[in-house]
Amino acid sequence: xxxxxxxxxxxxxxxxxxxxxxxxxxxxxxxxxxxxxxxxxxxxxxxxxxxxxxxxxxxxxxxxxxxxxxxxxxxxxxxxxxxxxxxxxxxxxxxxxxxxxxxxxxxxxxxxxxxxxxxxxxxxxxxxxxxxxxxxxxxxxxxxxxxxxxxxxxxxxxxxxxxxxxxxxxxxxxxxxxxxxxxxxxxxxxxxxxxxxxxxxxxxxxxxxxxxxxxxxxxxxxxxxxxxxxxxxxxxxxxxxxxxxxxxxxxxxxxxxxxxxxxxxxxxxxxxxxxxxxxxxxxxxxxxxxxxxxxxxxxxxxxxxxxxxxxxxxxxxxxxxxxxxxxxxxxxxxxxxxxxxxxxxxxxxxxxxxxxxxxxxxxxxxxxxxxxxxxxxxxxxxxxxxxxxxxxxxxxxxxxxxxxxxx
Amino acid sequence: xxxxxxxxxxxxxxxxxxxxxxxxxxxxxxxxxxxxxxxxxxxxxxxxxxxxxxxxxxxxxxxxxxxxxxxxxxxxxxxxxxxxxxxxxxxxxxxxxxxxxxxxxxxxxxxxxxxxxxxxxxxxxxxxxxxxxxxxxxxxxxxxxxxxxxxxxxxxxxxxxxxxxxxxxxxxxxxxx
Lengths: 407, 177
Fold this sequence. Notes:
The complex is a heterodimer. Chain A has helices spanning 3-14, 24-64, 68-71, 260-264; strands at residues 20-22, 93-94, 99-100, 104-105, 117-126, 129-140, 143-153, 156-164, 173-176, 187-195, 199-206, 211-217, 220-224, 233-238, 244-251, 254-259, 279-280, 283-288, 297-302, 307-313, 319-325, 328-336, 342-348, 351-352, 363-366, 378-382, 390-395, 398-404. Chain A is an alpha+beta fold. Chain A starts with a helix and ends with a strand. By secondary structure, chain B is mainly α. Chain B is 75% helix and 2% strand. Chain B has 9 helices and 1 strand; from the N terminus they run H-H-H-H-E-H-H-H-H-H. Strand 1 (20-22) of chain A pairs antiparallel with strand 1 (103-105) of chain B.
């Protein structure tokens, strides 16, 4: 075999993939099937994950608080139940204060040429018909200003305006949603397009009059049927700058929005975040955090009277283990820390002892046997917190809070 | 839940970029369009699951190929725990109606694919496909196959020699010139 023949064989092998053609129809259909499967898996994972990682600890908390903890919401006014919350900042209950949300009716694009389209992506489907996002590079006085998005559905095209100012192609995130947003699914929430830097366009389709509309928001979207009425609420979490959660719903023929911060009257919380949402005895559990380590508050959303009610305080968290660090004993809770809060590594767990023997840095006493082994697990400071009050420990790539005990 | 949607977006981007390549790769192993489609989906769903667990990927392409290979092998092992699953690859013909409906392959490439499928041991096929057809470097091929780089070099050299012999016997390449 001569060198030339080998090169020829190499070339033939290199071109094998090019010589296998797959029909466009198959690509389109298989992509659609995959998206459906991914959405379904996400839904299953979310339920399972929240149950295992947050649901179980929360159930443990509810048990820890005795029978009253589950009954609390339905017996909230019962003075015999010790459900008082010491926090001075956070209310014991609140309602979401909805008000109309202005939105934009997307118009037919003008001033673009179809042949200038950079590329398109199928972002969702409406009754099986694909909805595409097309991107056009936009210049003003020969200066690049961003990527303009156009939604194309059947013969219709609507203009989203500039969806990202980034120069990188495909820099934007596309999130596809399949939710039941209005009665009869006349109003369909189809997705979110944009970037963290420039914000996102929340896209809706009105099946009744065949129009697209939406609004711009800097936060990130998810949806969940909070009030269990069969229609999803969209919730939008903003994490940079203002930290808030806003809830968007379709009600009486219009979009409405409610802000949790405004509903609780908090001006500048450290974090307002939905860290869990699962249904337990008709309660949608929602966690809201505030600026002081000891004033984090859990709220449950009572489906009956549609009110958020406080149901536990931070010291009631279940403890899985105790660890000793810097002359302080900390209880490890089952609650995970947002990894972006993790600061410097300050040590590791060295040995197991009994609770009464906790004395040296790195000592650990296991309280619940089902918690993972702690030996050699790293201990971290939290950037936002005083380490004399709370630190974090990494177990199997997740970080958990460890709160100082009142010794 | 927010993270789930962010990751959906990420996986969608990776899917759009690599799903055709992955489909073709699995199709080369299974010669079954339906199975290749399902296993391609399984690969990206596994990727989604992986990212949902908060893990990160440095080199997506290599990682996804490795995942695709493992998903395919796992499927074949489960389906045929007692048989030699490795020899299930390629045993069917490329000339099946299910393939022809969806996939069009040039005749000379089809013949070359058949010859690659006849390579024994199966590791020869693996290394030729990844290094020569998919175009991975020695290091990347080693990573996907979980081999040492020297094993990739040696096996590839032997596999190519064997393939050239088969080509000469079958006269595939000479007919093209």
